């Protein structure tokens, strides 16, 4: 019984590491969609993409507090970018999300930022 528990925990960690869709915060019915941005990059042989997505974009102002950030991997086999929240996020008015692609693979991710 104990070995079954250990096996299931190890399997959950392995599969969780390959799920490249992420979320931070919680969205409610009263939230507004502040930004939806799709980042697409073609693969580079023997190299990887490292893309920073900043909100608000340069030259714009955001007056709303961010309540949730969703990053969706548009590749169906989880071969897309691994997202990381580098600064800001829920509770702030700004956010920087880093998308790091896999070696010799492209990026196709959609970033949604919700706020109120």
From TrEMBL:
<feature type="signal peptide">
    <location>
        <begin position="1"/>
        <end position="19"/>
    </location>
</feature>
<keyword id="KW-0732">Signal</keyword>
<dbReference type="Pfam" id="PF15868">
    <property type="entry name" value="MBF2"/>
</dbReference>
<protein>
    <submittedName>
        <fullName>Probable salivary secreted peptide</fullName>
    </submittedName>
</protein>
<dbReference type="InterPro" id="IPR031734">
    <property type="entry name" value="MBF2"/>
</dbReference>
């Amino acid at each position: 019984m104990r070995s079954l528990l250990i096996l299931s925990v190890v399997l959950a960690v392995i599969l969780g590491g390959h799920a490249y869709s992420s979320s931070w915060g919680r969205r409610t019915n009263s939230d507004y969609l502040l930004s939806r941005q799709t980042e697409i990059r073609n693969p580079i042989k023997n190299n990887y993409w490292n893309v920073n997505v900043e909100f608000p974009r340069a030259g714009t102002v955001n007056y709303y507090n961010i309540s949730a950030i969703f990053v969706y991997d548009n590749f169906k086999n989880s071969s897309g970018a691994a997202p990381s929240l580098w600064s800001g996020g829920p509770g702030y008015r700004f956010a920087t999300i880093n998308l790091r692609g896999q070696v010799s693979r492209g990026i196709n991710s959609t970033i949604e930022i919700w706020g109120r």
